[in-house]
C-alpha cells in the first residue's frame, strides 16, 4: 500500500519546534543557574549545559523537520489512513465503517498558529486516529467530509 498523500500544514514544523522549546527552555535555565550558583566543578557544569544545549538543538531544530517529512494522512471513501512518527513510525488505517466520532482539537499553540488536530475515534482497541497540525480550514473540511461519509455508511460503528 502506498503512503498517504497529504501532509500536515507547513506551520507544523514551527508548532513542533515551539512545543519542544517550551520543554527545553526551563531545563537550560536550570542548567545555567546551577552553573552560576552550584559548588560543582566547572567541567561538570560545562558538560551539563552542553548536553542540554545539544538535546535542545536536536529536539527543536531536527526532530520537527524529520516529523514533517514523515507525517502523512489521507481520507478515502473507505478509510482514514495516517503515517506518523519520526523515530518510531506508525501506520494506521481506520475503516470508515468503524468511525464513531470525529473531533477537532486546538491547543494554545495551535490556536496561535491557526492549526488544529482532527481525532477520529473508532471502535478499535488501538485507540483514536489523530491527524495533527492541519490548517484550520483543512481540519474543518476533513471533519465535514468524514461526517458526510460516515453518515452515508450503512454499517454500525460498533
From TrEMBL:
Domain of life: Bacteria
Sequence ranges assigned to domain YdbS-like PH in this UniProt record: 68-144
Membrane spanning residue stretches: 12-37, 43-63
Keywords: Membrane, Transmembrane, Transmembrane helix
UniProt cross-references to InterPro entries, sorted A to Z: YdbS-like_PH (IPR005182)
Protein name, as recorded: YdbS-like PH domain-containing protein
Organism, as annotated: Rhodococcus rhodnii LMG 5362
